[in-house]
Amino acid sequence: MEPVILETPRLILRPFTGADLDAITAACQDEAIQRWTPVPVPYTREDARFFVEEVCATGWREETLFNLGTFTRDGGELVSSIGLHQGLTRPSGVVEIGYWTAKEQRGHGYTAEAATAMCRWAFGTLGAHRLEWLAGVGNEGSWAVARKVGFIMEGTVRSRMDLRGAKIDGWLGSLLPSDLG
């Protein structure tokens, strides 16, 4: 599948390019991103290049990861990375959403706006019938975004996530097409 470009009133969601490597590298220095997401620590420009050129490109080509960068319409600043994962272990039509937000862009509702656009795309284009959100127990920022989009918390799944070799408990939420406003 070819990567898409999605637009919201305040944002443009588009594939990352080589021109975004410095912004990705800077964002991934944030302790919260490193605490809650499986980015390499320390995070280098080479890690950003690998993510953009290998992980994202392969994901679109193999239709297993649909990742986009979120940028402000006014100024083109990096807001977040947001992706939809279609893993082999998930039933057909069930897609997981994941995201991180650059520290300076938090608190503006940008990631919820971007996630809503991605969810609409997943239901419409991918034919998803259920979206799942999974985050480490205690990741209140991620839960705030998911809740704003309309996800319903289903509970805690024990030892469900692998974060740098450690098994951690996760919060699981779901979104059905009827949950989107």
TrEMBL record:
This is GNAT family N-acetyltransferase. It comes from the Bacteria. It holds the Pfam family Acetyltransf_3. It comes from Streptacidiphilus jeojiensis. Residues 11-177 form the N-acetyltransferase domain. InterPro entries: Acyl_CoA_acyltransferase, GNAT_dom, Ribosomal_N-acetyltransferase. SUPFAM superfamilies: Acyl-CoA N-acyltransferases (Nat) (SSF55729).
